[in-house]
Design a protein that fits this description.
The protein has 273 residues and is α/β, with parallel strands linked by helices. Helix content is 44%, strand content 15%. The longest helix is centred in the first third of the chain and has 18 residues.
């Protein structure tokens, strides 16, 4: 799979997407990278630590978040994308569900659209993605309807998002799926989404897993957001074991090391004695 100037072996590899929130209210790092200099410094740090993609977000989607206008979101993300693009060829993703923001971000040099609403809130975003030949990540964020199994509901919902993308002209090989841990799911469903990731791989698309510092880890371990690194690493490794091609995290170096070790075990630990 090509994203920007880079090829990703999504059948055999697992890659790190580093999170860069340029928001005042994201659940774990809001306000830390609001200035252009701070955002670029953090992006370069993530790249140096091993991030394969940088995901730039200008609107928080934490529980109870305050929506912002497309104009404000563009003001936040576009200068950062341009600054990263000026100094690095690492692929840049824009985390947005708005077509106007996607258009501005892709025009500024972004390579991918990461939509937590799976092209369902603003269907025009699919046409924008197709126009630029960009990659996209479509996330599941719907509650399961009564009488339908959780994983089957997720699969059907994601296939609807895929259909929206393909009908707008997005090539099938440009699509990534995300189970949406933390969105419209119970505690048990969040854990099942990680444990049953292979069922999404069966749909024929690479899968991205984003669990970094989320409340499911807090509940499992009884820890606040600033103490969820070990839980995130455990989820990263389980994601890799179950077939994730991309892992979206805040703490790149620690997760990259854990992922490297997991890969070594899975690919080289087959000798008998």
């Amino acid at each position: 799979m090509r994203i920007g100037s880079r090829e990703f072996d999504t059948q055999n590899g697992c890659y790190i997407m580093g999170i860069l929130n340029v928001t005042p209210d994201s659940f774990s790092d809001g306000g830390r990278h609001n200035s252009l200099d701070a955002a670029l410094e953090h992006a370069l740090r993530l790249i140096g630590e091993g991030a394969d993609i940088i995901d730039v977000g200008g609107e928080s989607t934490r529980p109870g978040y305050e929506p912002v206008t497309a104009e404000e979101e563009i003001r936040r993300v576009v200068p950062v994308i341009k600054a990263i693009r000026a100094v690095s060829d690492v692929p840049v993703s824009v985390d947005t569900g708005k077509s106007a923001v996607a258009e501005a971000a892709l025009a500024a040099g972004a390579d991918m659209v990461n939509d937590v609403w799976g092209f369902r809130e603003d269907p025009a975003i699919a046409a924008v993605t197709a126009k630029y030949g960009a990659a996209c990540c479509l996330m599941h964020s719907e509650s399961a309807p009564e009488g339908v199994g959780f994983m089957e509901s997720m699969r059907l919902s994601l296939l609807k998002s895929v259909r929206i993308a393909e009908e707008a002209g997005v090539a099938r090989e440009r699509i990534i799926l995300d189970p949406g841990v933390g969105f419209a799911k119970s505690y048990g469903q969040n854990l099942a989404a990680i444990n049953r990731l292979g069922e999404l791989r069966e749909l024929g698309f690479p899968v991205l897993l984003g669990v970094s510092r989320k409340s499911v880890i807090g509940r499992a371990l009884g820890l606040p957001v600033e103490e969820r690194l070990e839980g995130t690493i455990a989820a990263t490794v389980m994601g890799a074991v179950h077939g994730a091609s991309f892992i979206r995290v805040h703490d790149v170096s620690q997760n990259a090391r854990a992922l490297k070790m997991a890969r070594a075990i899975m690919t080289e630990g087959r000798e008998d004695g």
